[in-house]
Amino acid sequence: MRLSLLDVSKNKKIFRFINNIEIMATPMPDQQYLWNIFQGVDKDRSGAISATELQTALSNGTWQPFNPETVRLMIGMFDKDGDGTIGFQEFCHLWKYITDWLNCFKSFDRDNSGTIDKAELKTAFTSFGFRLSDAFYDLIVKKFDRNVANSVTFDDYIQICVTLQSLTAAFRSHDKDMTGVITISYEEFLIMVVRTMFHPA
Ligand SMILES: [Ca+2]
Ligand SMILES: [Ca+2]
Ligand SMILES: [Ca+2]
User: Fold this and answer.
1) Please, which residues have CB less than 5 A from ligand 1, an ion?
2) Which ligand is nearest to the CA of 86?
3) Which of 26, 100, 116, 184 is most deeply buried (CB count within 10 A of its CB)?
4) Which of 140, 160, 165 is nearest to 151 (CA)?
């Protein structure tokens, strides 16, 4: 199987993405402030935040529930002790992660519509170092256009960015000679997708 995603010069720029996020990164607020938020999210006062509690607390700017895939993705990333929930220390890192993503989202939502349209998405991804065709952006917006408004909401935006980053990293791990083209077997392809796309419930 032959896959071509990015050329060499584009590949090198992917890491700028992380730098961009750092530029926009907010300083960590004090523990008391975060503790108050944590207690507000922990509705059943169990001392930990479940996927349901996190989903309820988060808003994508519409009346629709926050994308459960994005919630699962974030719990998977920040549940360091692996108990399936988010404890307070884990929450502090998660809170910062969400805030940084929100700042990133807002900075690319040029018309302040609360959603990212195709042109805004293209500007965002181009600044992250991706060079992708209009057909690709059409596909992404069509796939995530939940409100039939040709745009992407905050929760889906996180999922798109994180998934694309993971897939690009997986691609790069096969692209040893940095040509932007890889040759992989069917099973290697499946392994790449499963590792990237599927997260334990
Ligand atoms: Ca709880
Ligand atoms: Ca945990
Ligand atoms: Ca917008």
Assistant:
1) 42, 44, 46
2) 2
3) 116
4) 140
The model's pTM is 0.80
Question: pLDDT (tens digit, 9 = 90+) per residue, 94-115?
Answer: 999 999 999 999 999 999 999 9
Taking the CA of 115 as reference, the closest ligand is 3
Other CB atoms within 10 A of residue 170 CB: 19
Nearest ligand, CA of residue 50?
Answer: 1
| Residue 200 alpha carbon to ligand 1 centre in Å | 20
The rounded distance, in Å, linking the Cα atoms of 191 and 105 is 30
> Distance of CA 6 to CAs 52, 143, 163, 181, Å?
37, 21, 16, 8
Distance CA 115, CA 60 (A): 9
